[in-house]
Design brief:
Elements: E1 2-6, H1 15-28, E2 33-37, H2 43-49, H3 70-75, E3 78-79, E4 85-88, H4 94-101, H5 110-117, E5 126-130, H6 138-146, E6 149-154, H7 158-178, E7 183-189, H8 197-209, H9 225-232, H10 237-240, H11 245-263
Parallel strand pairs: 1-5, 1-6, 2-4, 2-5, 6-7
Antiparallel strand pairs: 3-4
Helix pairs in contact: 1-2, 5-6
Bound molecules: adenosine-5'-diphosphate (ADP) and magnesium ion.
C-alpha cells in the first residue's frame, strides 16, 4: 500500500480537494483506496460519508492508541458511497488523542506503527492522508513519519509561496531525521488563473530562484467554480462534472503523478 500525504502548511490551497479527487481517480483505475482524515475539520470525512458522519462512533483516533487494537481499527473503517474507497474518519476524539500522544515517547510514529501492524497491504493499494493546515503538531508529524510520498498543492500567490518555503523546510527536516525514505513527489499549482498575470510571473520567478522548477507538475489545476459547487454538493469533479476543463486538468495531473510514483520505484 502506497501512502500519500497532501501537505502544505497553508490552508485553502486545495489539500482536501486534491485528496478527494485523487481517491476518485485511483478508484477509477481499479485501485483500492483507504483515506485517512487527520483534520479535525473533518472535510474529507464529511465528503465521503455525507450524513452518515453523524453515526460514526470511532474513527481515526484508534490508530493512536498505545497498544493498537486491530479489531477496533477495522471496526473504525467505513465504507463510503463509492466502491473501492474506505475511510478512517476524523472524529471529535481526535483533539484529545493529540494531547495524549504528545506526552508519550515515540508519539510521532504511532500512525506508522499502526499502519504496519494492521496488515493493510492485503486490503488496499493506496492510502491518502489529509492533514490540517499547520507546520507543527502530532498529527502532521505522524503523517510525515508514516507516508511514502508527499504531494504539495499550492496557489500562485505570495501567501502560498511563503507557506511553500516553510513546508519545504519541514519536509527536509523530516527527511533528515524522522523519515529518510520520504519522497517529495512535487508541487501542484492549484486554482490557476491565466488572468492574474503579474502574480503568476512573480511567483514563477520565486519558484525558479528557489530551485523548485523540476518539482512543479506540468499539469496545473485551474480555478473553477465547479470545484466549489462540487464541494457544496459533496460531489466529485472527476466523477460528477466529468466534461469540465478542471476534470481534464485533474486527469492529466493524475497521469503525471502516477508516472512520478513509478519513477520513484515504489
Ligand atoms: N481548483 C479550484 N478552483 C476553485 N476552487 C477550489 C479549487 N481547489 C480548491 N478550491 C476550493 O478552495 C477551498 C479550499 O480548498 P480545500 O481543499 O479545503 O483546501 P485545504 O484543504 O488546503 O484547506 C474549498 O472551498 C475548495 O472547494
Ligand atoms: Mg483541508
Amino acid at each position: 500500500m502506497k501512502k500519500i500525504l497532501c501537505f502544505n502548511s497553508k490552508g485553502g490551497v486545495g489539500k482536501t480537494t486534491i485528496a478527494k479527487e485523487l481517491a476518485m481517480l485511483w478508484r477509477r483505475a481499479d485501485q483500492r483506496v483507504l483515506c485517512i482524515d487527520l483534520d479535525g475539520q473533518r472535510n474529507l470525512s464529511r465528503h465521503f460519508l455525507q450524513d452518515e458522519i453523524d453515526n460514526v462512533e470511532s474513527g481515526v483516533e484508534v490508530l493512536f492508541d498505545r497498544k493498537v487494537d486491530i479489531a477496533k481499527v477495522k471496526q473504525s473503517i467505513y465504507a463510503t458511497c463509492y466502491s473501492n474507497i474506505d475511510i478512517l474518519p476524523a472524529t471529535d476524539a481526535l483533539a484529545q488523542k493529540g494531547a495524549e500522544i504528545a506526552q508519550v515517547p515515540g508519539g510521532q510514529v504511532f500512525l506508522k506503527r499502526a499502519l504496519q501492524s494492521c496488515g493493510f497491504d492485503e486490503s488496499y493499494d493506496i492510502c491518502i492522508i489529509d492533514v490540517p493546515p499547520t507546520l507543527i503538531g502530532m498529527f502532521l508529524f505522524n503523517a510525515l513519519a508514516a507516508c511514502d510520498f508527499v504531494l504539495i498543492p499550492m496557489e500562485l500567490s505570495q501567501n502560498s509561496m511563503d507557506g511553500l518555503l516553510d513546508t519545504m523546510e519541514i519536509l527536509h527536516e523530516v527527511q533528515d531525521i524522522l523519515n529518510p525514505d520520504l519522497q517529495i513527489l512535487g508541487i501542484l499549482i492549484n486554482k490557476y488563473s491565466a488572468a492574474t498575470t503579474v502574480a503568476n510571473t512573480t511567483i514563477a520567478q520565486q519558484l525558479a530562484e528557489a530551485g523548485y522548477n523540476d518539482l512543479i507538475f506540468k499539469s496545473r489545476i485551474r480555478q473553477a467554480t465547479v470545484v466549489v459547487q462540487a464541494e457544496n454538493a459533496r460531489a466529485s469533479v472527476v466523477e460528477d462534472v466529468s466534461g469540465s476543463n478542471v476534470a481534464s486538468d485533474l486527469v492529466l495531473f493524475f497521469a503525471e503523478l502516477r508516472s512520478r510514483i513509478e519513477e520513484n520505484g515504489k
